[in-house]
Amino acid sequence: MAHCKDPNFHAWIDTAQLDYRRADTRAAMIELLQSIAARCDGVRCDMAMLLLKEVFARTWTNFPCAVTAAEGEFWADAIPAVKGSRPDFLFLGEAYWDLEARLQSLGFDYTYDKRLYDYLVGKEPARVQHHLLSATPEFLRHSALFLENHDEPRVASILSLAEHRAAALLTVGLPGLRLLHEGQLTGARIRAPVQLSRRAEESPQPDIEAFYRELLATLNSSVVGRGTAEVLQPRPAWPDNPTAQNFVVVQWHSPPDSVDLVVVNLAPHRGQCRVTLTVDGLARHDWLMKDWLGSEEYKHQGKDLQNQGLYLDLPEHGAQLFRLAPI
């Protein structure tokens, strides 16, 4: 009997490894998943990429399979077998090593976007922007976005309030699955290992509670998560101004005229950019732009928006949710 392991690290001593090269093991685990699906609405599959055929073979190359190995991928068989009777059953995969899209192609509804998390908490705004602009719309729609989970430090312990607010707006303002961890909305700072089955008592942080309360209430009134999303390309507001690389702008559009913009400046200094909106008939109207998380209002001529793009100027760690309405 072996413990489960990542090929790059020591084994997890509180686990037991099954041999997923065996057809009988796969059949037993598919049956177990089907029994779980009869009792709940989804599963989070820890380190799901470790069961990919080539990864499993590399991890356990020194322990040959005792029988002829099964063909194909376990997940390609398991997920359809469960969804055949429970099409609404959700598979969430923890995944790394750029294998997330592979798991999505095998049927996972969502996979962790750990790179986005790493770039956000690592305070690397240009890498955040590049990562999101490089991703396909399908990948983004099937990504699980988070600022903390049971494996990671509490976000309130590693980001300032302003950084936290901008990162929170971005993770809930992108397409995909929003994962809000227990204690995150009250500003908990102490990570509790799941093995303890308990956690320290902490007083809520009023500033964090307030911004999450406002953010989630505002989202309910917006088209974020309901319309069609597009990550827009920020460009320099003027020559020799590099601050556009620190912006992420997500356009949500619900026809005919509901347009919301999630805008964050992830840098520790003020920044400016322009973005080209992709709304049909933009030049046919003038537009009122109001920040739902603040008090700012702007009026824009549609022809200027179409010809010059939307000009944005945000303070350090600025986070705004704009509604654009034709006037």
Structure, explained:
This protein is 30% helix and 21% strand. With 327 residues, it is α/β, with parallel strands linked by helices. The protein folds into two domains: 23-221, Glycosidases (TIM Barrel, Alpha-Beta Barrel); 228-326, Golgi alpha-mannosidase II (Immunoglobulin-like, Sandwich), CATH 2.60.40.1180. Helix 1 runs parallel beside helix 3, helix 5 (114-121) packs antiparallel against helix 6 (125-134) and helix 8 (161-173) packs parallel to helix 9. The longest helix has 16 residues, at 206-221. The chain is elongated, with a radius of gyration of 23 Å. 34% of the residues are buried. The model has no long low-confidence stretch (mean pLDDT 95).
Give the CA-based shape: elongated
Q: What is the C-level CATH assignment of the largest domain?
A: Alpha Beta
Taking strands numbered 1, 2, ... along the chain, how are they ordered across the largest sheet? 6-7-8-13-10-11
Total strand count, please?
A: 13
The CATH level-2 architecture of the largest domain is identified as Alpha-Beta Barrel
What gap, in angstroms, lies between the N and C termini? 69 Å
Low-confidence segments, given as residue ranges, are none
Task: Supply the CATH superfamily name of the largest domain.
Answer: Glycosidases
Biggest β-sheet strands, sense, barrel: 6 strands, antiparallel
What is the gyration radius calculated from CA atoms?
A: 23 Å
Count of structural domains: 2
